[in-house]
Structure formats: C-alpha cells, structure tokens
Amino acid sequence: MRLLKIKLSGFKSFADPTTLEFPDGIAAITGPNGAGKSNLIDAVRWVMGESSAKTLRGESMPDVIFGGSNTRKPAGQASVELVFDNSDGRVGGDYAAYNEIAIRRVVGRDGVSQYYLNGTSCRRRDITDIFLGTGLGPRSYAIIEQGTISRLVDLKPEEWQVFLEEAAGVSKYKERRRETLARVENTRERLERVNEIRDELTKRLNQLAQQARQAERFGRSAKPSGSPGAGFAYWSRKSFAMP
C-alpha cells in the first residue's frame, strides 16, 4: 500500500488547489522554513481522522482553513484528499477489489467535517476502520515527527505494546473485540432493565387479578336471592302500601 497523491485546497497555507504526486521509490519534500512542509504532514493526519486541533498545531478545527493574507481572502472551507495504491489488497473487506482508495475530508467555518471514501459520503469511523493495522490508523507509526524517536525511548512497556500491536496488525482485532464487549455490556444492561420492567408488570398484574377476584366475590355476595328484580318489587309494594 502506497500513497500516490495528496490533493489540498484551502488547507492552511495551501490556499489554491494543489496536487502532489509521489512516484515509486523514495520521495523527499524540501523547502525553506515556512514553505508548508509541516502543513503537508498535518494534512495527512487530518484527513485520516485526527480530531485534536492541538495535534495539528491549532486551537480549534477551523484553524486548518486558510486564514487569508494581505492579498488573499480567507477560504470558506478546507479540503484534503489522499489517494492510495491498493493493488496489493492491503485494505481488505469491501474495498479489497479497488486498486486505488481515495479518502477525502472537508471542513467549513462551522467546524463540521464531512468525510468521503472513494467519492461516497461516509463517517469518520469508516475511514479509521479500514486503516486499522496498516500503520495509518489513529495510533499511526507511519508518521515520525521531530522528537518522536527520543519520546519512544522513554515509553513504558504498555505504551510500546500499542505500537507493536499496530505494526503486527493486531490493533484492528483488539478494536473489534472492544466494540463487541461494549455491545455485550450494553445489551446486558438493557436486558436487566427489561427484566425489571417485566417483574414490575407481573407484580401489577397479580394485584389487578386479586382485585378482580375480590370484586367478583363481592358481586356474588351482594346479589339478592330469587328472580332478578324480586327484592325491588317487594320493597316497592311495602313502601307504597296504603295504611
């Protein structure tokens, strides 16, 4: 799996639509300070689903949008697209048959992001899911910034484990396991709630059944003997008899 292209528009210093193509082998991006080299790395992180503005050297997500200059108006939105060569089938599942995988992210001044996978609108999770275990997920080891090596030396064993699991392709299975356990726990809690409601309804039903039996017994004991209306007729004759 290899990065073929980066397409940017309105992202940080890239005010105009810009496309960078990467040939086979090793590619190097050079330039003076302020040329936008670090912004390219930020663009890759951002389109892969980075949600921390601080990681992108900003205060809020709209900070990635070109803010204007003395000669240019601010951009209304930022857009970044990455095109990957997937001829080796590294991205499996529904996208294994695609020789190229294109992911795109767009954000407006309202800070709301939209994601696209091969031109189709999708969720952020859809993008992070397909790249789990490739080194380009949220715990990416494919991007090594200045100072990263020195930080790696000081990592604790459990922190090293995260990188090793991502490199070995285990992270996606652990993520699936975590999601499955979360669904199981959610189902268990809902089942407990259903059982509580069932017990409450059963208790209420028993109370109503008991009240119904009491009402039935009362009705039988209050019913006058003889034919219906006989007691009323006798009472009427007695009440209105002449003295």
Automatic annotation (TrEMBL):
Keywords: Cytoplasm, DNA-binding. GO terms for cellular component: cytoplasm. Pfam families: SMC_N. The keyword Metal-binding does not apply. Residues 212-243 are annotated as: Disordered. Residues 3-136 form the RecF/RecN/SMC N-terminal domain. The keyword Lipid metabolism does not apply. One of its GO terms (molecular function) is DNA binding. InterPro entries: MukB/SMC, P-loop_NTPase, RecF/RecN/SMC_N. This is Chromosome segregation protein SMC. It comes from mine drainage metagenome.
